[in-house]
Amino acid sequence: MRIAMVGSGYVGLVSGACFADFGHSVVCVDKDPAKIESLRAGRMPIYEPGLEALVAETVRQGRLTFRTDLTEAVAQADAVFIAVGTPSRRGDGFADLSYVYAAAREIAGALTGYTVVVTKSTVPVGTGDEVERIIREAAPDADVSVVSNPEFLREGAAIGDFKRPDRIVVGADEARAAEVMNEVYRPLYLNQAPILVTSRRTAELTKYAANAFLATKITFINEMADLCERVGADVQAVARGIGLDNRIGSKFLHAGPGYGGSCFPKDTLALVKTAQDAGSPVRLVETVVSVNDQRKRAMARKVIQACGGAVRGKTVAVLGLTFKPNTDDMREAPSLAIIAGLQDAGATVRAYDPEGMEQARTLLPDLAYAEDPYDCAEGADALVIVTEWNAFRALDFERLHGLMAAPVVVDLRNVYRPQDLEAKGFRYTGVGRPEGV
Ligand code: NAD
C-alpha cells in the first residue's frame, strides 16, 4: 500500500514509521519545515523510545520519506491519514478542528484515483461528515471515501502499542474503504489484533469514550487516595484490592497528582462539549474534569503543608516535569500547575527532568533547571517527585540528606515506601497513604 501521513507529530511519525516497517511505502508530511529538515537529517523532533532506530531502518530500506508538501504523496496514495493536532479551542474547550479541515482542503486538491482519507486525529463525532463535505465541495469528481481510525497509542510506549494494539477501530461506512483499511492493517491482523469495523460516527465516539473512561478511573482512585489520607487507609492496598477483580482491572489505578498530557484533558473537555451540544450531558465526565483540574493545584498545597505551611523564601526541588515518564511532552503536565502554585506562594523552584527540560523552558521560563537530581536537591527545603522516571526510582537518599537544607520528600507518585525514607531521616509525604505505613 502507498500511504501519505499528513502531520508528523507524536502520532503521525510513529504511525508512519510503523506502517513503513509493516512493508508499506509511506510519505510523512508536515508543514513545519524545521521538523522535516530534522527528520531528513536523521534527528527526531520528539523523544519516543525506539523511534530513531525504526525511522533510520525504514528510511534506509527506502520505505519512509519526508516532505513538506503533500501533493505528490496524496496523488500516489491508496490511503491518506490525517494526523494533525486537535487541541482545545480557546474559550469553550471544544476541539479546535481548524488543522483537520485545513488538511482536508489541501488533500482534496491533490487526490487522484480511488483514495481513502482516514482521520487518525482524535475528532468529535460528526467531524468525518464535515471532512467529507469539504473534500466533495473542493473536488466534486474525486473518488474518495472518508474513514475514521482513531489512535490509541500511549506516548512513551508508542511503537509497542502501535504494533501490538489491543484493538484497531475502523469507522467505515463503505465496504471498499474497509477493504483498503484491512489491507493497511493486514500485518497486525495476522498477529490476531482484533479489527473492529463500525460506522464512522461510532468509531469517532469510541475514542472519546475510551479516554473519558480511563480519565474517570484515574480520578476515582485519586479521590479514594484523598479519603484514605483522612481515614488512615492505604490507597495502594485499596487499588490492589479492587484491581484484582477482573471486572475492574488493575491498570490506571495509581493515585497521583491528576492526569495531564496531550490527550485526556482536551478529550474529556471536548466530550463534555459534544454531549452538551447533543442535549445529552455526560455529568460524570464533567465532574471528572473539574475534580482533576482542582487536584493539580491541590498538590501544590500538599507540598506547602509538608514544608510546615509556608514556602515563602524556601527552595523546592521538583523531579520530573513531563506528564509521564519516557516522553518529552509537556502538554498539560501536572507539574505546570504545581510549580505555578509553589511560585505563587513565594517558593523558589528548581527542577530536573531527563527529557522534558527543552519543552519546559518555553512554558516555565522563570524556573531554575538543574543538571541532575542531586544538583536539583542541593540546598532545597523539600524534594518533590512529580513524574516517576526510572532515574528517580533508586535515588541515593544518604547523599540527598547531606545536600538538602531540610529532609522533606513529597512523593506524588508513591515511588518510595514511607518507612524506608523515614528510616533514612526524611519526613515523607506520599499520596493516599497514612504516615508510617
Ligand atoms: P502533534 O502536535 O505532535 O503533531 C501534529 C503535527 O501536525 C505537527 O507537527 C504539525 O506541524 C502538523 N500539521 C498541522 N497541520 C498540518 C497540515 N495541514 N499539513 C501537514 N502537517 C500539519 O500532535 P499529536 O500528539 O501527534 O496528535 C495528533 C492527533 O492524534 C491529535 O488529534 C491527538 O489527540 C491524537 N492522538 C494523540 C496521541 C498522543 O499520545 N499524542 C494518542 C492518540 C491520539
TrEMBL record:
Q: Name one Pfam family in it.
A: UDPG_MGDP_dh_N
Please name the top-level EC class of this enzyme: oxidoreductase
**What is catalysed by this protein?**
UDP-alpha-D-glucose + 2 NAD(+) + H2O = UDP-alpha-D-glucuronate + 2 NADH + 3 H(+)
| UniProtKB keywords | NAD, Oxidoreductase
Q: In which pathway does it act?
A: Nucleotide-sugar biosynthesis; UDP-alpha-D-glucuronate biosynthesis; UDP-alpha-D-glucuronate from UDP-alpha-D-glucose: step 1/1
Q: Which InterPro entries match?
A: 6-PGluconate_DH-like_C_sf, NAD(P)-bd_dom_sf, UDP-Glc/GDP-Man, UDP-Glc/GDP-Man_DH_C, UDP-Glc/GDP-Man_DH_C_sf, UDP-Glc/GDP-Man_DH_dimer, UDP-Glc/GDP-Man_DH_N, UDPglc_DH_bac
EC number(s) per entry: 1.1.1.22
Q: Boundaries of each UDP-glucose/GDP-mannose dehydrogenase C-terminal domain copy?
A: 317-418
Enumerate the SMART domains for this protein. UDPG_MGDP_dh_C
Q: Which family is it part of?
A: Belongs to the UDP-glucose/GDP-mannose dehydrogenase family.
Q: List the NCBIfam families.
A: NDP-sugDHase (TIGR03026)
PANTHER family linked to this entry: UDP-GLUCOSE 6-DEHYDROGENASE TUAD
UniProt name for this protein: UDP-glucose 6-dehydrogenase
Origin organism is: Methylobacterium trifolii
